[in-house]
Amino acid sequence: MIITKKHLPRRTFLRGMGATVALPLLDSMVPALSAAARTAANPVRRLGFIYFPHGSVSWAKGSQNQWTPPGEPGPLTLSPILQPLAAVQDQTIVLTNLEHRNAQGNGTDGNAEHTRSNASWLSAARPKMTEGADVLLATTVDQIAARRLCRDTRLPSLELTMENSFLVGNCDNGYNCVYVNTLSWSSPTTPLPMENNPRLVFERLFGEGGTVDERRAEMRKDRSILDSVTDDMSRLMRSLGAGDRTRVNDYVDAVREVERRIQRAEEQAGQSTLALPDRPVGIPESYDEHVKLMFDLLLLTWQADITRVFSLQLGREQSARTFPWIGVNEGHHGTSHHQDKPEKIAAIARINTYYSQLLAYFAEKLAATPDGSGSLLDNSMVLQGSGMCNGNAHDHKNLPLVLLGGGAGKLRSGRHIKFPELKPMANLLLGLLDKAGVPADSFGDSDGRVDLEPLSLLSDA
Questions:
Q1: Residue 56: which domain range?
Q2: Does residue 273 carry a pLDDT above 50?
Q3: How confident is the model at residue 109 (pLDDT cuts 50, 70, 90)?
């Protein structure tokens, strides 16, 4: 590492044996005569996409519809499901009446609504019906954005999931499992694998990996990957002002805390006596802790500018995950086939509320993390939603979608946007590319673009 008395390069790393730790933005990385670089005039824009399966209750009538904000479009009043976002309400946009037409069956491509829900969500395209290797979709919006936004970052993008992504063969009425294993495609024929192991993500961000046995051996040493960068960090700290020293210490503490939680999950896995298939080292037994670890890794990733684009799959379509800690003991997929039973509709609402709580966990951490003249949330756009509306009907109209962040000054948030008639979700994805500074004339089946800046959008889509 080379340190000058004038300023540090933005790409300054702490290096040690098997470890490379990027740093958050520091005052000493900005030349004294370049004050404009500290302001919103030159923000780093970031995009995140978070998917949940099986839809919501935005289709329901009356009090059962706990997703759609009450009242007329305009200033946002949070619905019961979205109430966990109250702390970031002024950075929230809820969108109503967007659809994915290419997820709907056309009479010739089989009854595979779950597969098409997942595949079309970021592609706005119809997947080719095949069980073989000749899969075909489209380049997804996250990868189009990453090519522009992540040209100078260490990783081009990050793809994460809460489930294993190793299913093969026919997963849904003649469709290859790859269509539900991932959200992200770097080309129409190249699906990107998604990682569900926090330890492997951590090592990808900060250090070298190894076999499961090697990682278990390192775990028993009770050492931090940061121990190997101690000398480099000491030299750096001597050159920094008080404010930068605090930022570095806070960031390193956050890295250590995430690593400690991963180690705890590894220890629990090693102590388990259950006669079950081995959980990969580093995956917590608790789904809640697993998701929050992934969000904390994403926070570190954005804070150190390791990448600027991510996709996260909270659950695979047709997932049978149960949520007993919120009172849902039936599998998610089975619950979504509610047959208009009030108790099942209420269970779906509880699951969706829980997903909002997880989103709030991430958003509040972004809001509390300085970035230039604002926060990480100020300079980001995070879209959470599903490719299905009514899990019982398997439809793809009026999708549940919530957008968080300030978009580096490009979003006018704190609103409910309701279109008078159904419009392609592709129009929203095209609008997000616009606000991220990624030029595109069209995307998927778009027939316009959602302009996220004006107060009223009803005539713009």
A1: 46-196+291-298+311-461
A2: no
A3: confident
- Model confidence at 336, pLDDT cuts 50, 70, 90, reads very high
Q: Is the pLDDT of residue 35 over 60?
A: no
Q: Please name the residues in contact with 274: beta carbons below 8 A apart, sequence gap of 6 or more.
A: none
147 inside domain: yes
pLDDT single digits (tens) 371-384? 988 999 999 999 99
Both 424 and 315 in one domain: the answer is yes
Question: In this structure, are 221 and 174 located in the same domain?
Answer: no
Helices 342-367, 287-303: axis angle to 10 degrees equals: 30
- E strands along 265-412, which residues? 309-313, 370-371, 374-375, 380-385, 401-404
Same domain membership, residue 447 and residue 332? yes
Q: Are residues 186 and 329 in the same domain?
A: yes
Q: Strand 92-99 and strand 74-75: pairing?
A: unpaired
51 plus 161 within the same structural domain: yes
* 69-97 residue pLDDT tens: 998 899 999 999 999 999 999 999 999 99
Q: Any idea what the CATH number is for the domain that residue 176 is in? A: 3.40.720
Domain count, the chain: 2
